[in-house]
Amino acid sequence: MEYSGDYDGEVGVSSVHACFNILNSLSGVGILAIPYALASGGWISILFFILIGVTTWYTGLLLQRCLKLDPMIRSYPEIAEKAFGKKGGFLVSFFIYIELFLVATAILILEADNMYHMFPNAAIRFHECLILDKKHLFIVIASLIVIPTMWLEKQDFLSYISAGGILVSCILVASIFWIGAIENIGFKNKGVLVNWQGVPTAVSLYLVCYTAHPVFPTIYNSMKNKSHFPKILFISFALSSIIYGLMAIFGYLMYGEEVQSQITLNLPTHKVSAMIAISTTILSPLTKYALILSPIMEAIKTRLIQANYKSKSIRKLIGTGLVLGTILVALVVPLFGYVMSLIGALMTSCTSIVFPCVIYLKISKRYRRCLEFESVVLVVIIVMGLVLMVTGTYSTIVGIIDHL
């Protein structure tokens, strides 16, 4: 779920390196919410998880086919521009930037939730009129920590630190399994077979697990042997799905319907293994925050430089403005599960399902051969993506309104 920083853009990388880059891109904070996703939809929703995994793997291959048709294309927005002109490129860029902004917002909420889980009695009173409660206090603290990283001219060291996304995911899964198997919590909850009312939320959260398509063109173009891309894409999706699946099953068996939107919030803070999981959850996303917002910052910076603003004087201003924007959204909607669900339903359904199919139909001219099998499959996937977007977004917005 990380679009920037995890990959530095070098050319001629090995297939193993490319596989690591894809795995790292697929490894994000969504792993914390996937037990909650399974609890929302019940055991049957695992079928939706598998369906989404297969579908997004296939749409990743569609992007590769578009790149093969025109070797001059270097990025996802350029693919869209090739198909639908500048308006198409702008639309894809807009969705990517909004998605990144919401992911950064979710990180602040995640930080606040887990800090409070460790320090539940914290609160600050300013005079008699302003009180920062536990949640808002830690959102502000997290934002103060990340602001300096937004001012850095070069973020190379953050890239190296954040490149361990797949390692962090493995640590979290191992910690959860240890707590369940060794710390006497056990895997005793049977759960429910299906909860149809919660399926839209479950599907939206499953979508977040496969929201790495914007980096696929960059990784593909970096490869020394591009013919290996389909194979390494399959391996990456398979391994990532196994990691996500294990986390979902372990968490649901441990806590059942009581599992929270972040599995770490269920963990006992007096256990060493739990503290490892919570500390990893707090520290790792902080290194990714600036990298996630970097593409938005660079896009704004480029526009302002074209307008004759001095680049050195605007970087801090842009960075601070973006942080303030994420703080505002996090304070208004401090609900991690619903923000993540909104990302999946409204953004990922488009960037990882609908857009790749529509773009490929246009570039390959398959829309002229609408009765061919693959053309029918593409149309079915597009309809499925739109249904997921509408139902998931509606369910999420209703949930947000009910909880505010």
Automatic annotation (TrEMBL):
Task: Name its cellular compartments.
Answer: Membrane
Q: What are the protein's UniProt keywords? A: Amino-acid transport, Membrane, Transmembrane, Transmembrane helix, Transport
One GO cellular component term of this record is: organelle membrane
Annotated GO biological process: amino acid transport
Give all residue intervals belonging to the Amino acid transporter transmembrane domain.
14-397
Membrane topology field: Multi-pass membrane protein
Q: Its domain of life?
A: Eukaryota
* Presence of the UniProt keyword Transmembrane in the record: yes
Q: Which ranges does the record mark as transmembrane?
A: 12-37, 43-67, 88-110, 136-152, 157-179, 199-220, 232-255, 275-296, 317-336, 342-363, 375-401
List, alphabetically, the PANTHER family matched.
AMINO ACID TRANSPORTER, AMINO ACID TRANSPORTER TRANSMEMBRANE DOMAIN-CONTAINING PROTEIN
The protein depicted here goes by the name Amino acid transporter AVT1J
Annotated organism of origin = Cardamine amara subsp. amara
